[in-house]
Design goal:
Elements lengths: L2 H9 L9 H18 L3 H28 L5 E2 L7 E3 L2 E2 H19 L8 E2 L2 E2 H22 L4 E2 L10 H20 L2 H25 L4
Antiparallel strand pairs: 1-6, 2-3, 4-5
């Protein structure tokens, strides 16, 4: 097992490092959602919740890679966090992901009155998810260089950032497609499904099997 993976397991869901900054981050997320509720912007709220609920499952899968390999997950966040939820995600990152879907939808809604809008010659429906995806890749690369987020495997590391890029591009483009093509009732049902899967994965892999 890599030192970073072992370090992550040592602090996994420990409360010794809890900081007041969690409340500040949580407050920002709550404010963002309440602001959209005030505007009755249900599409942004649903996409925000969908994005974070799917991200939860993705982090479960990453943690299971660590369990089954006994070596390392694809990415690990071993230190300097208030609370480590799984080996690859801490509370700070999760709160940020809780806003990702909201930010994406609001960015798209800014141009919906002019559907043919192009930015730098690219239609906004492609340009916006592209920018958000690249922003996330850039941020994760900086975190990696700072030693806050560790990559171990050859093809999930420098110089092979294509894998990390796909990891971010796919969900942003999928959410963009879903924003325009999937009805609100269907999104609501999907959210309910993913929340059930989140709860089930926690119950099985964390509480019962204690694998992650």
């Amino acid at each position: 097992m890599t030192p970073a993976s072992q370090e992550a397991l040592n602090i996994l869901r420990q409360t010794d490092n809890m900081q007041w900054s969690i409340l500040f981050g949580l407050g920002l997320v709550i404010y963002a959602y309440v602001a959209e509720i005030e505007k009755k912007n249900w599409d942004a709220i649903l996409m925000g919740l969908l994005f974070s609920s799917v991200e939860f499952l993705w982090e479960v899968a990453n943690a299971l890679i660590l369990h089954f390999t006994g070596y390392a997950p694809l990415w690990v966040t071993p230190a300097r966090t208030s609370f480590l939820i799984f080996s690859g995600i801490n509370i700070e990152i999760f709160l940020l992901f809780a806003l990702a879907g909201v930010c994406l939808v609001k960015s798209l809604q800014a141009f919906e009155d002019e559907p043919d809008t192009k930015i730098l010659g690219i239609r906004y429906v492609y340009f916006i998810p592209l920018c958000w995806g690249l922003f996330c890749v850039f941020t994760e690369a900086l975190l990696n260089r700072a030693g806050l987020l560790i990559w171990t495997y050859k093809y999930w590391n420098f110089p092979h950032l294509w894998s990390v890029t796909i990891n971010y591009m796919f969900p942003f483009f999928l959410c963009t497609w879903g924003h325009f093509k999937v009805s609100r009732p269907t999104k609501t049902r999907l959210l309910a499904l993913f929340l059930v899967l989140d709860a089930a994965s926690w119950a099985v892999f964390v509480q019962m099997l204690k694998w992650i």
